[in-house]
Amino acid sequence: MKTLGRYIFTKTLLVWFGALLALVTLVMLSMLFSNLSTFAEHSVGGATIFAYMLCSLPQAAYWVLPFSLCLGLLAAQASFARHSEVIAMQACSVSRLRIFLPYLAVGLVATVLMGWLSFDVVPTMQRQAERIESVYIKQRDVQGNFTLSGGRFKVGNAIYQVRHLDIAAGELDGLTCYRLDGGQIVSVIEAEHARFDGSAWQAKAYTEVVPLPDGLGLSRHSGQLPLAKNPADLVMAQPRPEVLSLGELRDYINTLKADGIRSRSIETFYQSRLGFALSPLIMAILTLPFAMNFPRAGGLGRSIALGIVLGLGYWGLNAGLNALGSAGRLAPWVAGWLADLLALILGLVMIWRKRSSYG
Q: How far apart are CA 149 and CA 248, in angstroms?
């Protein structure tokens, strides 16, 4: 990279890091203040609070990283414009491509960081944060967890395992219930599918195995299951894709498919995680046309505002498409990638339209 390219890259990188640090600090402070009442209610010690906030740090960075890049690129270009550096580049016949490439290189660095956070670091640290919250901060009525084998929870003297739980739809698949009395199993209930009707869990068919003195008794039933909890009470047993690494999430989806279970919300989350990892590069392409307005063309402040609005629009469109995909109204791959495709096309068109001038 030549001297000019290194200069633009280094300055933009530093400005972006500054924006990222500022936004992460704001998010962490907001998170801390919003949890103060919970910490006080459960008399949580300072060491526990510090550990919980530290484990939440990668999640905060993941949330704000794309927007911080948008701000960083615009702020860096504003700095160049304020010191007439871009006019000097133009006077020296520096091509648009030579100016664009360092910005795109910063976008690639941010994309690599985004992928590392999204695919591995955030899920790992989020598991630790939730463990601290469950064990050291909150005491829940229903104890349980979610693993790659499904959700497990305990209600009274019964232990439940479900292959997949959809709280929003009030449905569960692959239920096995071990009913205990005095530490001994008194019956095992299995149901392939059940739905919450507003007051109880109903299954079209389920089997119950009961130990007998001379063997095992098997009976088949339909109707209400002995699970006296609302779907919202079982939140700890629902799929938690955000705490699974990319490989673990893919394995979980394949396991569900092998059992004949399809979760559009999980598949949409998987595709979205892949697509959103490219968001820093998409943000860079979207904001470049606005960042390249030079002082003599006027309207630098307006361009910065439009660049920010466009970046936020991409962010909002991505969230809306993910919601539609999770609800089953869009194919998961469409929900996960359409926002990237549309934003990329829009950014490239705007860059192409500015090909003949700097302003």
A: 11
Q: Dihedral, CA atoms, 60, 61, 66, 71, nearest 10 degrees?
A: 100
**Phi, psi dihedral angles at 274 (to 5 degrees):** -65, -50
Distance CA(191)–CA(198), nearest Å, equals 19
The Cα 55–Cα 115 span in angstroms is 18
Helix, strand, or coil here: 58? helix
Residues in the chain, overall count: 359
What is the DSSP pairing of strand 171-181 with strand 201-212? unpaired
CA distances (Å), origin 53, targets 40, 126, 258:
15, 11, 38
Cβ–Cβ contacts within 10 Å for residue 208, how many? Answer: 17
Contact 142, 165 (CB under 8 A): no
Closest Cα partner for 172 from 130, 201, 129? 201
| Res 236 pLDDT > 70 | no
Query: In 16-41, which positions are buried (b, 16+ CB within 10 angstroms) versus exposed (e)?
Result: beebbeebbeebbeeeeeebeeebee
Helix, strand or coil, per DSSP, at residue 155: strand
- Calpha distance 83→11 (Å, rounded): 13
Do 52 and 133 touch, CB atoms closer than 8 A?
yes
Backbone angles phi, psi at 158, to 5 degrees: -125, 140
Q: What are 85-109's pLDDT values in tens digits?
A: 666 666 676 666 677 888 899 999 9
Closest CA to 15 of 69, 89, 86: 69
Beta-bridge partners for 208? 189, 219
The pTM (predicted TM-score) of the whole model is: 0.74
Angle at 228 between CA 227 and CA 232, to 5 degrees: 95
Query: Are 123 and 311 contacting, i.e. CB atoms less than 8 angstroms apart?
Result: no
Nearest to 164 by CA among 119, 242, 231: 231
The pLDDT confidence band at residue 118, using thresholds 50, 70 and 90, is very high
